[in-house]
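Standup notes, protein team

Yesterday: finished cleaning the Amycolatopsis lexingtonensis set.
Today: Taurine dioxygenase structure.
Blockers: none.

Input for Taurine dioxygenase:
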Amino acid sequence: MSVDLPARIQLREAVTPAGGIVEGPRVLREPPQTYAHFRIRPLSRVIGAEVDGVDLREPLTPELREELNRALLDWKVLFFRDQDITSAQQRAFAANWGELETNPFIPKGDDDAVTRFERTAAMPGYENIWHVDVTWRPEPALGSVLRLIEVPPVGGDTMWADMAAAYDNLPADVRARIDGLTAVHDYLPGFDRFSDPALLARWQDRFPPVEHPVVRTHPETGRRTLFVNQAFTTHIVGLDRDESDRLLRYLFLQAHTPEFQVRFSWRPGSVAFWDNRATQHYAVNDYHPHVRIAERVAIAGDRPF
């Protein structure tokens, strides 16, 4: 049966807001690749670079810290190979970027600032969803430092998506539609699948749902960044539920675009440092029933605007 043109247009409108399917070349802002204190190897056009020439066991000089911060802003996630560091050295490195935060829903390492992810056959991982860490806080984390302690024989990669590139590539009418909107973020949807209900209930008064802009401005680069995620964003303020759900589904899908992503294969001694204000990430859960153990340190952030 043939479909007339108006019906086809209506179908397209039903699938994406404003018919916002964009094929062809993407708008990609490629960062610089030259730094004075280390070398980098980009892993994609816009996000993710391996850093060579930095020993994370050693304190950072002010000059090295400043240049690593510039590289972090440029590439959004930095990778360090062959780093035989302790939890204390991991914390010391992260502390160069500010106060460290704790997470009440994830088991601790050797102190409150270290969260430990022990994924085994009996306790599989649930981080295989595109998300931004702790957007349920009024001030979500600035960034995180993750190191793998035990790596499965195959699989267990992590992916990151550049959410400034995702925003840049939205159709103009969609950008106009979402600029100025706010959305509600709540820890319950992200943790209720695998957490003790009593633990979740205990923190409801301390961490009520919060509102953040759908599009935030990065406080250091000034770039506009899409700031909703499937794990913690529940609805858009001021829209009816159907419209909110439809728009959020469309915005969540932007992280799935391969041109905005980098995928990192872990080895023993690998460390990743990412800008939580500019990225989403996804822990690929393809290693079950093998063991994957990681420790993460998060750096306290500021209120999105």
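Follow-up from PR in the comments: Helices lie at 5-15, 62-75, 87-94, 163-168, 172-178, 187-191, 197-202, 241-252.
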